[in-house]
């Protein structure tokens, strides 16, 4: 059975009304898509969180607006208050289950890089990869195994393209992760002579006796 999230239409879009919605435990948002007009809605914050935890960030679920037509949607954008870290607005996109779409998929590194045991630094450069596929085929994440990386090694899009079941739209040469060499340490001056020596006085005049 498909996951269903209930939503209510928002008629009053004034800021004061939106703030009250959030205070009452609702998350304001908008529903849109290629075949429907954009419509402001709200969902219960607790139920929204339960839904996202159940189906994942890229999952497809039904949005039931005012007990009417159910829309097959996916989470498109989620805005967060930078100070309170609370969700403040959500965008739902109605998908055509028969047409391919582009989506951002999170990269998950797996394994331990041998280079890190030698002092190397694992630099995760790409946190999301763009894929093009049917909505039902969007993966929750893309795993990238780093267990063979030594210092100086890297993994690029070209290295994982054949192992991913959906089409990746990123360029082959884009680097996902690299193991960098540790920063070179400055060797101390063992003699210590140059740093502590007094500067030589040039053109010093000798005193003459009468």
TrEMBL record:
Q: State any GO CC term.
A: cytosolic large ribosomal subunit
- Tell me where in this chain the Large ribosomal subunit protein bL25 L25 domain is found: 5-92
The molecular function GO annotations come to: 5S rRNA binding; structural constituent of ribosome
Keywords associated with the record: Ribonucleoprotein, Ribosomal protein, RNA-binding, rRNA-binding
Provide the residue span(s) of the region labelled Disordered.
Answer: 182-210
- Mark out the compositionally biased spans (Acidic residues): 186-210
Is Protease given among the entry's keywords?
no
Q: Which domain of life is it from?
A: Bacteria
Span of domain Large ribosomal subunit protein bL25 beta: 100-182
Q: Which GO BP terms sit in this record?
A: translation
Is ATP-binding given among the entry's keywords?
Answer: no
| Role | This is one of the proteins that binds to the 5S RNA in the ribosome where it forms part of the central protuberance.
Q: Which family does it belong to?
A: Belongs to the bacterial ribosomal protein bL25 family. CTC subfamily.
| PANTHER family xref list | RIBOSOMAL PROTEIN L25/GLN-TRNA SYNTHETASE, ANTI-CODON-BINDING DOMAIN-CONTAINING PROTEIN, RIBOSOMAL PROTEIN L25_GLN-TRNA SYNTHETASE, ANTI-CODON-BINDING DOMAIN-CONTAINING PROTEIN
Complexes and interactors? Part of the 50S ribosomal subunit; part of the 5S rRNA/L5/L18/L25 subcomplex. Contacts the 5S rRNA. Binds to the 5S rRNA independently of L5 and L18.
The name under which this protein is listed is: Large ribosomal subunit protein bL25
The species this protein belongs to is: Alkalihalobacillus trypoxylicola
Q: What is the lineage of its organism?
A: Bacteria, Bacillati, Bacillota, Bacilli, Bacillales
Per the record, the gene is rplY
């Amino acid at each position: 059975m498909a996951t269903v999230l209930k939503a209510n239409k928002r008629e009053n879009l004034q800021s004061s009304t939106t703030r009250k919605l959030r205070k009452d435990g609702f998350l304001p948002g908008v529903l849109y898509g290629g075949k429907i007009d954009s419509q402001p809605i709200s969902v219960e914050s607790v139920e929204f969180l339960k839904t996202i935890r159940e189906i994942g960030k890229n999952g497809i679920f039904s949005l039931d607006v005012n007990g009417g037509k159910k829309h097959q949607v996916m989470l498109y954008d989620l805005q967060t208050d930078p100070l309170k870290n609370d969700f403040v607005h959500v965008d739902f996109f109605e998908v055509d289950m028969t047409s391919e779409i582009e989506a951002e998929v999170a990269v998950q590194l797996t394994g331990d890089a041998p280079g890190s045991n030698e002092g190397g630094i694992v630099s995760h450069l790409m946190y999301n990869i763009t894929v093009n596929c049917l909505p039902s085929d969007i993966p929750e994440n893309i795993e990238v195994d780093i267990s063979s990386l030594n210092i100086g090694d890297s993994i690029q899009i070209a290295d994982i393209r054949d192992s991913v079941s959906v089409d990746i739209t990123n360029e082959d040469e884009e680097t996902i992760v690299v193991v960098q060499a540790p920063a070179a340490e400055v060797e101390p001056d063992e003699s210590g002579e140059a740093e502590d020596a007094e500067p030589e006085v040039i053109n010093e005049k000798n005193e003459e006796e009468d």
